Amino acid sequence: MSRAAGREPRRLTRWWRRRSLRTRLTVIAATAIAVSVFVAFQVAIELLDRELQDTAENQLRADSRVLATNAERAGLAQVQLPPYPGSGGLVRVILPDGSTRTPAGQPALPPVSEGAKRVAQGASADLMESNDSDDGYLVYTLRAGDGAVQAARIADGSTNNRFGWGMLLIGLLCVAGGALVGRTVARTGLAPIDRLSAAAVRVAHTRDLDAAIPDEGGGEIRQLIQSINDMLAALRESRRAQRLLAEDAAHELKTPLTSLRLNAELLIRLERRGTLDSALPPESRTRLLNDLGVQVAELSTLAAELTDLARGDVSDQSTEVLDLADVVVAAATRGRSRVPDIEVALDVSSVWVSGRPAGLQRAVLNLIDNAGKWSPADQPVQVRLRAEGASAVLEVDDAGPGIDAADVPRVFDRFYRADSARALPGSGLGLSIVQRVVDAHGGRVTVGRSARGGALLRVDLPAAAPPAPIARLTAGEDTAVR
Question: How does residue 459 score in pLDDT terms, banded at 50, 70 and 90?
């Protein structure tokens, strides 16, 4: 039974949620008016009932005072009681012996109550009481002489009934009118929403993101339209970025794939002819195989960088407070394992930041790889990490030729490679990934010239408080990874 009772509210809630906004507004308006009319009806009935009660009581007191005055003059037994005219108030005289006198032809009143008897005996001056019988008499007893006089009226509820039926009819008309007004207001107020919905459906069906929704209405409607237009603009920018990425990726993949295909076709053709050993001496064959390995490695790197760049976020990892020095050391170790010829000199201090370890390590590794391409064999890549105010500052410099001033504005563009870097391995995505990672962490990356004449890339990240007291590395401590 309790489960069935519990399902009813949920069923009603589901039904309500499935209704249209117009229906909801109409029901809400009609319900609000119905509640208002009901409350007003109850208050009006209560006020009317009290007013009629006060009027009746005042009239009974006045009638009783007139009769009591006459009784005191003529005596209770001799006071004249005119015959009952057939309507109006009722009177009765209570004699000292407890008997009563009533006008001729008057309907019988309820028996004298104990309270009325006490008034007649002089225990109290007067008494107003109501009878709960079907007739519903209202009786007022007033002390007069050695007894008492009474005035009574039948409590007539016809006035209240007529008023109640009138209020009910008015209430129904108000509810119907409220529902009609609510429906009209809902239709008028939701007209811009209908047009907005139709425009959104049209955009969804045509996939035309350039079709901005016309700005109409005001207040919240205008804000909603502006928000949707902003969303369409963001989608247009996202589609444009995807198209550019696909075009750039196709362009960059074409060269290594063509070279790889030509070398593979050469090997296959010579093998089919049986002239592989004679046409390719061992030195040439080794060089060709090395070229194939380099091309495959370049394609793998390019595919990984394209995947990182195409993803919506820097990493699937959640943000955590970490020591950036650990990230830099791990990236330097990976850089040394990937390119044994790279020598990395570290000068790092413990600086805590809030970020994603994998994304930050990839950014540092790309900076080290980029510097390693340009550093001479006898000059290490220098990596420095320190705290400056509220920032963690990472600097990576090399002893190469540096970056030309004309190339600085585009050094972080995707697939951009300076003319001097065309002959070097790489996809032109490394520094673009660095900038994206740094931007995602609320930092900034800049390009300058190092004291050794090469490029100096500086990353500024917001520093964070360490999770617990940590013994910091001594400033200036050098670590070399060879």
Answer: very high
Is 139 a residue whose pLDDT tops 80? yes
Strand order in the sheet with 90-94: 100-101, 90-94, 147-154, 137-144, 126-130
State the chain's mean pLDDT as an integer: 76
Q: What is the pTM of this model?
A: 0.43
* 412's tokens: 């972080």
- The predicted model gives 363-374 an average pLDDT of 82
Q: Which two tokens stand for residue 279?
A: 């046409």
Residue 236: which residues within 8 A CB-CB, separation 6 or more? Answer: 209, 210
Beta strands 391-397 and 381-388, pairing class? antiparallel
Do you know the residue count of the chain?
Answer: 482
Enumerate the β-bridge partners of residue 345: 382, 480
For residue 454, which of 408, 407, 397, 410 has the smallest C-alpha distance?
397
Cα 214 to Cα 4, 189, 209, 452: the distances in Å are: 49, 17, 13, 58
Q: Within 10 A of 216 (CB to CB), how many other CB atoms are there?
A: 12
> Using H for helix, E for strand and C for coil, what is the string for the chain?
CHHHHHHHHHHHHHHHHHCCHHHHHHHHHHHHHHHHHHHHHHHHHHHHHHHHHHHHHHHHHHHHHHHHHHHHHHCCCCCCCCCCCCCCCEEEEECCCCCEECCCCCCCCCCCCHHHHHHHCCCCCEEEEECCCCCCEEEEEEEECCEEEEEEEECCCHHHHHHHHHHHHHHHHHHHHHHHHHHHHHHHHCHHHHHHHHHHHHHHHHCCCCCCCCCCCCCHHHHHHHHHHHHHHHHHHHHHHHHHHHHHHHHHHHHHHHHHHHHHHHHHHHHHHCCHHHHCCHHHHHHHHHHHHHHHHHHHHHHHHHHHHHCCCCCCCCCEEEEHHHHHHHHHHHHHHHCCCCCEEEEECCCEEEECHHHHHHHHHHHHHHHHHHCCCCCCEEEEEEEECCEEEEEEECCCCCCCCCCHHHCCCCCCCCHHHCCCCCCCCHHHHHHHHHHHCCCEEEEEECCCCCEEEEEEEEECCCCCCCCCCCCCCEEEEC
Residue bearing tokens 């996202």: 238
Q: Which of 415, 340, 336 is nearest to 383 (CA)?
A: 336
- From residue 321, alpha-carbon distances to 324, 326, 328, 464, 466 in Å are 9, 12, 15, 7, 7
pLDDT tops 90 at residue 460:
yes
